[in-house]
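Collaboration report, partner site 2.

Our partner group contributed sequences for two proteins of shared interest, and the home lab folded both. The records are reproduced in the order in which they were received, starting with the first partner submission.
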Amino acid sequence: MHTPQKIAKILGLLLMLAIGSSVGLSAREWDSSSRFALGIYANTGASMGGGLELGISLYQGQVVQLRNTLSLESKAAKLLQDESFDTNILGFYEKLSLGIFGGGGISSYIGLPYFRPYLFVGAGFGLVSARTSSFAQAPYYWEVSGGLGHEFISKSGHGAFFELGGGVARLTQALLEQRADALGGMFKVLLGYRYFF
């Protein structure tokens, strides 16, 4: 079973690769017509972990933007009434976000002249690994969530973002020592980096 420390190291290496590979691309000035975004984030809500994401623009207006984001996330959760995180979840997520693109004088002073507040809805499916089960067998994890986010984007297309949201999470069946309906309402806080291209 992967520990949260190993997962954090892997995600840190992937972040360094993403930033390193985008250095050569960031010589041009970014504009709002960019159709794709690669990102990495930390989940600091009720479950702890991190993930990688690919964002695709579905509609790109002058002000309103609709994006679809696919992500792969690994996180640790407390499901077996232990003191520490006892269960790993490898999840696959899809999220739709509707945002308003703009620019601001105040954020320009810190090198982030563009911003985009947005609302999102999403769903995910995950494989569960605990001391009583492995990723290759049931139970499985699913969630439905929604919330709001905000991203700040530099002139070269690098961005920082945060998301606050919540929803419902469940297992398809019970783990040993735990009811299948033990998961319920959940809270998510994502902090991350995106590169737009």
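Second partner submission, folded after the first:
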Amino acid sequence: MTHGLRVFNQASGSVQIDETYANFALLAKVTVTTDLVGVQIGAYLNVTGDTPIIAIRSETHFVAHQFTTRSGSSWSFFVQAFNADGTLASGADITCYVYDKPWALVGPFGYGLAVWDAAGALTFHSSRRYLRVEALLTGADYRTSLPAATYPAGRTYAVIPAKLIGTIDVDSVASGSIGEYINSFFMQILGFKFGATTLSGADCLAVEDVQTSTTPNIPEHYDYVDYAYLVVDVTHQ
């Protein structure tokens, strides 16, 4: 057993408190709205942090986290929303929960418990709201068996995909004009949607880009169809 203090209750699970390990704490709760960004429809969530991760949620659309870029401590998360038929949705709201290592408070904060490691970095502060994992759901191929789960009423949940889940196709065909090609790029992605007590997945068209060029694409196909994602309890966050 790990040395330290463990806080536990049945509703929220446990948080390990010691001088070496830092649990992920809630950095921010942000709502972003999808729009046309370049050739894609989605929204960027920009975060400054150490090693941030995001959980996403929507009750009106299927949502997905497509990719993340980083420059130093600046992180950009690109998220998308999809309609019931799997097509991209513009003007859709996505609730994002941003988690990172706990950070020091500035100014007075009343009474509580704070723990630092040997280097002086904060590992726990009792005023923080910590990541609460409900379940890890996995599967071999989302195309043959879409993920679905049921949860207790009266709770609120969000999803953290552990990896890109989907397929990518790149291809070219002659356009009919000499030296001209029609290049296509398609990306399917697994989206998630919450009901009052349910979580469901859908196969969604994340990117569809077709362009004419004198340089053909190299035909390629990529499968990332096995899925792994965390379902987290965000009821009080």
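Feedback sent to the partner group on the second submission included the following. The chain has no helices and 19 strands. Residues 8-12 have pLDDT under 50 and may be disordered.
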